[in-house]
Input
Amino acid sequence: MKQIIFEISATRRLTETVFEMKLKGDVSGIKCGQFVNLLIDGLYLRRPISVCDLAGDELTLVYKVVGKGTAKMSEMQVGQKIDILTELGNGYDLSTSGDNPLLIGGGVGVPPMYLCAKRLIEGGKRVSVILGFNTKEEVFYEEEFKKLGADVTVTTVDGSYGVKGFVTNAMQGKDYTYFYTCGPEPMLKAVYNASKTSGQFSFEERMGCGFGACMGCSCKTLYGNKRICKDGPVLCKEEIIWEK
Amino acid sequence: MGEMKINLCGIEIDNPIIPASGTFGYGYEFAEFYDINCLGTFSFKGTTKDARFGNPTPRIAECYAGMINAVGLQNPGVDKVISEELPRLKKCFNKKVMANVGGFSVEEYVHTASLLDKEEQVGWLEINISCPNVHAGGVNFGSSEKGAYEIINAVKKSVNKPVIAKLSPNVTDITAIARAVEDAGADGVSLINTLLGMRIDLRTRKPVIANKMGGFSGPAIFPVAVRMVYQVANAVKIPVIGMGGVSTAEDVIEMMLAGATAVEVGAANLVNPYACKQIIEDLPGVMAKYKIEKLSDVIGGVK
Output
């Protein structure tokens, strides 16, 4: 856990509602699958955003505008400074991936899959990626994943691009040694039921502090109560209890 | 440098800054950020007889200058707090700690308080008769003079350490409750717990919080807290711990002028994990600015 002042170095709109923000600062210690917590002028609680990429001293965040916090983020300009808590959450354990891991990202769950793919490919793994969206207009980061050298399949619910249907449709027929996933909870549950191997799931919850103090984001697991922000956001397939 | 020491119910503490229960865990999460021995003390996570998971999620909602929480007293239960949490706490904190006690019956409060009373590191017992987030919970005791008296009187008879009653602002007359717990033998009162609040999501038309309502805290409630601390400090003779939206060294002095002997800091810890350290570092400068040599001199000093 560190408190760092970052400076925005680049911003880019990826779709109607999804934005990319690059920030310069001390990124040391940040792991794949972790998140950062941003202090935004005019709002009280920090906003947790998953880490999409790390390169040199640059942190990339990709987020969807869903409320006041993310709307304010989308209006921020290059050069603006942001107070950010980093190194939050447990992150993915990549040591269990096997040789041919499958990454499954749905919508705003796609960004954390990027650093995951990058690290696994750096480690010599043959990585397959499934990116799920509702329609063609919502698709982002397909080319970025391809540039890493991943085998990329895009699905859209309405069939306007790639494979028609859900990410689980694209999972059928794939051979993989392990999987990593992030996305909306109904998707995570579908992946859980459709998966043939063990894997890790990244969850989302409304948080108070983001560093384990307030018990605002607790969940029940087979290994006892956990805090999504501190003991998660990544949970293993074997411990998940589906409540909702 | 000005003198920041104060005496809280017979125990001298280095400064009046106390992280509030529920925002500071059992201390060790914050010890990763800074050496928490700079604190006067801290009030640890509300502890009940049995382990509690608490309320369903979402438990948190953003508000203007504040937040709503409906955690619902999640804690591992008093036995585990004593066997697991307190030994961990001891490794990062070498001062007396304030034990925060919740409950659902007189017997439960007495059971939990008596066990924590025996722990060497516990300096004070803060009895939470005001949690807004547990149905049929402590708030029912805390919202009537009779209930508040009953709990504090029973706890007081079964413990040796100073008892501080944590009061709810969600009552018609907080001074009446304060007088009732003073009559019951309380050594101090702390206030205010959170204000009952609610937010609704326009898109889903559902309450943001799964439990529908929760406790509103943060800078937005500071003026309400100052007013109630002022009223209670003028109604009782026992020390008052002021809390509610305190975020800066100036807020601490304002709260003390209103009548607080010490000050708890809550929501601010969640937004800025260094909040209490910052306040303690800022206090000497702010004291000098307002020509305060001894912080205890300003208690109740409002003209």
About this structure: Chain B has a mean pLDDT of 95. The CA atoms of residues 54 and 72 of chain B lie 4 Å apart. Chain B touches chain A through 36 residues (CB under 8 Å). The first strand of chain B starts at residue 6 and ends at 8.
